[in-house]
Amino acid sequence: MNPPPPDIVTWIKVDKPVFDLFGVIVSSFTFIAMLVGFSLVLGGVFGVLRIRRFRRTPPATADLHLQLQSR
Predict the structure, then answer these.
(1) What is the DSSP string of the chain?
(2) What pTM, to 2 d.p., does this model score?
(3) Largest pairwise CA distance in the chain
(4) Closest to 43 measured CA to CA, from 55, 51, 31
C-alpha cells in the first residue's frame, strides 16, 4: 500500500492591515459634497418650477386694496 502524499503548505505573505484615516476623511467629504451638490440642484429646480407656476397664476389677493386709516 502507498503512503498518503505529504501535506503541502503554501505561504503567502500578507501585509499588515493599516487603517487609512486620510482615505476615510476624504471619502466622507466627497460623499458630503455630492449630497450638498445634489440638494442644491434639486432645490434650484424645484424653486424655478415654483416661481414659474406662481407667475402664471396671479394670487387670489391681487384684487384686494388696502387703505391706510388716519387717526
Answers:
(1) -PPPPPP-------PPP---HHHHHHHHHHHHHHHHHHHHHHHHHHHHHHHHHHHHS--GGGG----PPP-
(2) 0.54
(3) 123
(4) 51
